[in-house]
Design brief:
alpha/beta, homodimer, 8 helices, five-stranded parallel beta sheet, four-stranded mixed beta sheet
């Protein structure tokens, strides 16, 4: 009765290069009860990316069909490609009582929050801006001009952090993943998710 | 930099007999880093109660002096006795970065929240109304008519549960104490408590 029947949608954003994908992967390894929403995109896969794991890589025609048929929780375009969140996976899992993790950029996060006001909004931050730059450079998959573009983008995205419920500092992957888990568990205990139970106890107290 | 400089005030309420005092004692045993606010009262100590531990037992004159000198965070009267929260202990510990636990009734909790909007509001519930009655009867320290009076009081107090941030179900003392700890740790990660850090990262991103 403490657990709510429905799962919760957990929106995870954070600067490019902050390691939010790695934190989520660590969380899923220790807590496989979470469902991970895989975005659809029309961009080309990077060398290491697997279709259906990192993204659903689909054609522009297919993506635009999903838009028309309202099959996306949100979508956006970035660098001439579409990115979006297939709706059915999220709603099915939540209905089955599973929490769904959704890694998404800040603009998409806003749309998700508007569509799902009960979504928990988490923002992963680096311990400092300098650490973020070092991680982007160290990753090696980015050209120097791309690193600069990503940092400029991060500075713009930083304008929206206050819209998130909690920040998580990725100083250590496993520790950050465990803090994420704690935040999600805590979220389930919000009073507003237990109004039926409260009313039940209230009625029983009067009738005892 | 993740930890805020200031401690947080944690208000813990719950029905009479729900075991919130026992849960808090369990939390303090495993996490002695918390400070526990001890209320002042003018009522007589029960047999097992120790001055300065369960309450500060003080005279009516002394209590009214504290009222006049604004030394109380809140106070109220109940069954012809005063109950109140000495202010200095709370503010000193918070300033030193310690979280302060404050076990208090719902009316006092409202006053504390009005005075300290950043207070975390927790409400401890029994697994069911029936369990609450059984605990009150089983405690043996209450006369049957007092049990009835407490249950009626609980029903009235239940009207205010929605004003609390989270509910905690006391199904198991240690587990409930750990959930309380998790909720408090999670609370520290609220975005609104880290605006200075966010601004610092934002500025550094622009200047990198």
């Amino acid at each position: 009765m403490m657990s709510t029947a429905e799962g919760k949608l957990v929106v995870v954003s954070g600067f490019s290069g902050v390691g939010k994908g790695t934190v989520i992967a660590s969380l899923l390894e220790t807590h496989p009860e979470y469902a991970l929403s895989v975005s659809a995109t029309t961009r080309d896969p990077r060398e290491y990316e697997i279709d259906g794991v990192h993204y659903h890589f689909i054609s522009k025609d297919r993506f635009e069909q999903m838009i028309r048929e309202d099959d996306l929780l949100e979508y956006a375009s970035y660098l001439n490609n579409y990115y979006g969140t297939p709706k059915t996976f999220v709603t099915d899992n939540i209905a089955q009582g599973r929490d769904v993790l959704l890694e998404i950029e800040i603009q998409g996060a806003r749309k998700v929050k508007a569509a799902c006001p009960d979504a928990l909004m988490l923002f992963v931050m680096p311990p400092s801006a300098q650490v973020l730059r070092e991680r982007l450079v160290g990753r090696g998959s980015e050209k120097p001009e791309d690193v600069d573009a990503r940092l400029r983008r991060a500075a713009r995205e930083a304008e929206g952090i206050e819209e998130y419920d909690y920040i998580l500092i990725n100083d250590d992957i496993e520790a950050c993943a465990e803090r994420m888990h704690s935040l999600i568990r805590a979220y389930h205990q919000k009073t507003s998710f237990h109004l039926d139970f409260i009313q039940e106890v209230r009625n029983d107290l009067i009738n005892l």
